[in-house]
Amino acid sequence: MALKSSRRRRSGRYLMILPAVAVAAGLTAATWPLCERAPWAFFLGAVMATGWLGGLIPCALTTALSVVVGSCFFLPPYGTFGFQAVQFGAVGAFVIVSGFIAFFSAAYRDFEEKDRGHRRRFEAMARSLAEGLVTTDGEGRVTFLNPAAERLTGWPAPEAQDRPIDEVFSLRVEGEPASWVGDARRGVQEIRGVLLGRDGVERPVEGSAAPIRDESSTAGVVLSFRDVGERLAAEAALHQSEELNRKLVGGSVDRLEMLDPEGRLLAMNDYGRRLMEAEDFESLRGREWASLWPEAMRATVREAVRKAAQGGVARFAGPGPTLRGAPRDWEVHLSPLLAADGSPERISCIARDVTERKRAEREVQASERRYRTLFESIDEGFCVIEMIYDEDGRAVDYAFLETNPAFETHTGLVEARGKRMRELVPDHDDHWFRTYAQVVATGRPLRFVDRAEKLGGAWFDLYAMPMEGRKVAVLFKNVSEAIRAEQERERLLLSLKLERGRLASLIQDAPAFICTLRGPDHVFELTNSLYREMVGNRDLIGKPVQEAFPDLEGQGFFELLDQVYRTGETFVGKETPIRFRHRGSSEADRRVLNFVFQAMYDPDGEVSGIFVHGVDVTDAVAAREALRESEARFRQLADAMPQAVWTARADGAIDYSNRQWRQYGSPPEGVLGDSRWARLIHPDDRERTHAIWLESLRTGRPFETEYRLRREFDGSYRWHLGRALPIEDSQARIVRWFGTSTDVDDVKRLSEALQQADRRKDEFLATLAHELRNPLAPIRTGLEILRHCPDPTSASTTIDMMARQLSHMVHLIDDLMDVARVGSGKISLRKEPTTLQAIVSGAVEASRQIIDSARHSLTVSLPDEPLPLDADPTRLTQVVANLLNNAAKYTEPGGRIGLAARREGDEAVVTVRDTGIGLAPEMLSKVFDMFTQVDGSLDRSQGGLGIGLTIVKRLVEMHGGRIDARSAGIGRGSDFIVRLPLAGAPAAVPGDPGADENRTRAGGLRVLVVDDNRDSANSLSRLLALGGHEVHTAYAGVQAIAEASAYPPDVILLDLGLPDRNGFAVAAELRATPAFHGTTIVALTGWGQPEDRRRSREAGFDDHLVKPVDIEQLRAILDSVAENGRRRPDGAVAVVEP
Cβ distance 912 to 975 under 8 Å? Predict the structure, then answer.
């Protein structure tokens, strides 16, 4: 703006050039020819005017333009630009004079500009002074008043202009008008008195007046003054209160100090010393008072001291710690104590401890700032209105005194402050005026909600509060949206109520348990019938969950509810166990639940409750657990079964197999018999097995067939019986197949072995019949010869022949008896010390005849050292002889037979070798079996029953040895190797079947058998009698005591479950009798647990046998009794039949 004004002024200076030159030319033309002799006169005026108004440059341009115009129009030749030589002087003079004019005009103009600038700065400075300033001219008339002078004198500057100074500044000294202007013209004059203002108000003032001088005289007076009413009042009050202060200073609760004018501390009251924690004041006396304050306060303190030292009153406030550093806040008042001549003699300092007040003020200020910020930033509208009434006292309008920024937002009224409502909204409803007038009249606040039809139909929520006079403060908010939302909410609530009714019905009929909880305490709001039924119909509504379910404490559900309420995150419980008691029950019921805790939110998005829903899966989990246990038991049972077990789906695909399949590799998959089974089933059985399985799947008939499976660890095939049964559902549809694969290989082989043994038996019987008939035929023939032939020689020959045949029959019968005794374990060995050399010699002698008759060569090789044996010589001789006889029988005439003996470690080894028919490989393991014939035709031609090697093997084993057969094949001879333990070496014959029969048997004991089961008692009695014992029998407890007393037994076998008295009572009574202290009493019972055995032992029984009685265990007990000598003195043995 200032830049544009300056440009306009510069443009104006240049625009005046043309008019000035034109006016000069016009005046010259108008006065022509009068001014012909001085044609530049008017042009000099134009130059002077532009120089005065425009400055140097406009003046120079005016000069140049004047020369052009004047030369052209007013110098000959006229009408052309140019002039004669004689005219150069006049033109030059014009230019020089114009130059002087331009210079002096510009200089004077610059001086005026500077003078005006000085005056403007003076006036600006004067206007900013707090003191009054008045200037006069040389005649004493007012030329200037600053605002402070206007305020103090009551004269506006325009009205005071040119008025006498005594009229404007009416000064009274002691009630009389003061004459000071004349003194002020001569020099500086102090002004002190009472100023009588234009308005009649008197004000004590102080000031000074000084002359305004120019170069030669006094041009006026300048007066400065100030209102000292407050200061004088304070000084007067100070003087009046000094005496009182002196009296009160001792009991003052302020810190009172006395300073000298230089600010040094002279004295301090006792309370002040306590406040300052000054124990030694003398160390402070004479110290600069400002040094007691913090560095930041010292300049302020010194300024206050300086002001007080000059006679003024100073106040300041600020922090100042005690001498011990404790923080304090002070309000300090310094005032001078004047001497008699009115000069400051001392400075009085009153410092009040305002630490607590400052702290409170800071808190209040902070609070006020917060509330002011809140007021300015609140969303609610706020205004202060003043009611306007008509002459009848009716409220007709109100004016807005204050509004906050939100006022316009809520009302739409712009710049309402200072305006009336009728001005803004002329047809505003009258009831608003009446409502606010009611607040003014009653002096009570009013809260209401109303609609302003003329403000767009907006709804307002208002709170009107009375203030002083006719003012009312109104806090309001445009709630149009809220009202509309409320109306919509009511509509929605009605709709929601209907929906909630439908929802409640759905919840009550839902197949899941449901409840809703509200608030942080999880108060029950709603439950459905399933929930109430599940918890035992407890009273829940309105109760916090912890009060309703105290039995849930410690199970983690309360913590889960708190977590969901706090975080809003949904919690899903899967098969969670829970225990709670039903009403009237002391036992906690265990349930298993699937449930969800889901947060519910209020309209503000805050969690307000929790929605609980779920399903009681207790029965389902129990059923699943039962199914799992059933499956586990099934798998355990299946794994424990010796069969390979498998299950298949309805389509025949196998989906389970037990551990028995491991010996056949991984469990097979797919359909039985298909390509995936190819590695298991024997190639010859695959197609047949697959076809039978498919037929069962098609017809639903049980599957059964035999097939061979390949065993993985040895690659052998074993026969299995495969069976499968269909499992049907309630609609008779096949849903699964359950199958087994039973290893029948051993059974099948045993069956084959039994069939083979049966064949051998048949062959044996045929051979036996043949062998028995062979000697009987010549014997029968011999009898006929003896009957008809009297010749002794012929009879003798016949008798010898019959004797040989009879001997052969006896040998056959002996072999048969040996086989029977070996099979029943009834062969008894009569062992004695002997040597292997003696055994071999006897055998060679016994077999010499048959070897020689077949023209065989026999080679015998024996060691030089004796090979001692502890054996039955007869039986071992029979063994070696049998081997030599077999070698002779199964070797073509003229063959070779070798017999060699040697020592190998602790064993004696006998080898019989021949060059006979030999053995096939498959016969090496069968040659020692009963009734085995190496070659039927040859065997029958040579004679024999095929039982010899069986007897040999059993006799060798009874001696703790073993026998093996070896052969390179048919026609390549055989080797039979016998190994026997040398005397002193441990025998390996625990498997001797005749050992039990050969041991010393206990016999001759008197035994009492007591059992109420007569068949059991009688059969056991007969068995014991067969063992050589005297046996008595009783069938009841009383009978047993009587029988034992009549025939004192060595052993009592006592049944515990007798009908009249149990076995424990019978045993106790017998033990109480001295005669039975040494009798062995054995309990017979069907109970065999450790606890049962302990009870028997505590009741006095010596042993405990579980029915059915183990005969060998019973024999061991009887043997022990016999060996320990617990027998009757007479040793009699009697069998008493019941």
Answer: yes
Q: Report the C-alpha gap between 311 and 677 in whole angstroms.
A: 128
What is each CA distance from 947 to 409, 503, 1091, in whole angstroms? Answer: 130, 98, 53
**Cβ of 638: how many Cβ atoms within 10 Å?**
21
Contact 857, 897 (CB under 8 A): yes
Helix (H, G, I), strand (E, B) or coil at 1084: strand
Q: What would the mean pLDDT of 586-600 be, rounded to a whole number?
A: 85
Total Cβ atoms within 10 A of residue 1029:
23
**Residue entry with tokens 């006036």:** 123
In the chain the domains, ranked by start, together with CATH numbers, are 2-112 (no CATH), 131-227 (3.30.450.20), 250-361 (3.30.450.20), 378-478 (3.30.450.20), 510-621 (3.30.450.20), 641-743 (3.30.450.20), 760-824 (1.10.287), 829-995 (3.30.565.10), 1000-1123 (3.40.50.2300)
CA distance 622 to 318: 83
Distance separating alpha carbons of residues 1127 and 1123, to the nearest angstrom: 9
- Token pair, residue 639, equals 């794994």
Handedness of CA 77, 83, 89, 90 (dihedral sign): positive
Question: Is it the case that residue 107 has pLDDT exceeding 50?
Answer: yes
pLDDT at res. 1119: 86
Task: Please give the radius of gyration of the chain, using alpha carbons only, rounded to the nearest integer.
Answer: 75
Pairing state between β 1080-1085 and 1051-1055? parallel
Task: State the amino acid at position 1125 in one-letter form.
Answer: G
Q: How far apart are CA 625 and CA 575, in angstroms?
A: 12
- Reported as a single tens digit per residue, the pLDDT across 25-61 is 777 777 777 766 677 777 777 777 777 677 777 777 7
pLDDT digits (tens, 9 = 90+) for 945-990: 556 788 888 889 888 999 999 998 898 899 999 999 998 644 444 3
What pLDDT was estimated at residue 4?
52
Could you report the per-residue pLDDT of 736-774, keeping only the tens digit for each? Answer: 898 888 888 888 888 877 877 777 676 666 656 655 665
- Tokens 């001879």, located at residue: 973
Report the first-to-last Cα separation within the chain, whole angstroms.
Answer: 155
Tokens of 535: 């918890």
The 471-478 sheet, strands edge to edge = 395-403, 381-389, 471-478, 458-466, 446-452
DSSP string, 673-727: TSGGGTTTB-HHHHHHHHHHHHHHHHH-PPEEEEEEEE-TTT--EEEEEEEEEEE
Using the structure block, give the residue that is written with the tokens 């068949």: 1015
- Which tokens go with 20? 């000035």
Whether 1104 shows a pLDDT value over 60: the answer reads yes
Burial of 847-884, coded b for 16+ CB within 10 Å and e otherwise, reads beebbeebebebeeebeeeebbbbbbbebbbbbbbbbb
Return the structure tokens found at 776.
Answer: 């009987």
What is the DSSP code (8-state) at residue 1118? Answer: H
Beta-carbon count within 10 A of 998 CB: 14
CA separation for the pair 847, 888 (Å, rounded): 9
Do the bridges between strand 1006-1010 and strand 1051-1055 make them parallel or antiparallel, or are there none, so unpaired?
Answer: parallel
User: HSE on the CB side for 953, CA within 13 Å?
Assistant: 16
Supply the pLDDT for residue 909.
Answer: 94
Question: In terms of pLDDT, which residue wins out, 93 or 416?
Answer: 416
The 10 Å CB-count burial string (b at 16+, else e) for 25-45 is bebbeeeeeebeeebbebbbe
Quick one: which H or E segment has residue 950?
helix 948-958
Confidence of residue 9 (pLDDT cuts 50, 70, 90): low
> 444: which 2 tokens?
């009570």
Spatial contact of 981 and 926, defined as CB atoms under 8 Å apart: no
Joined tokens for residue 1075: 């005669």
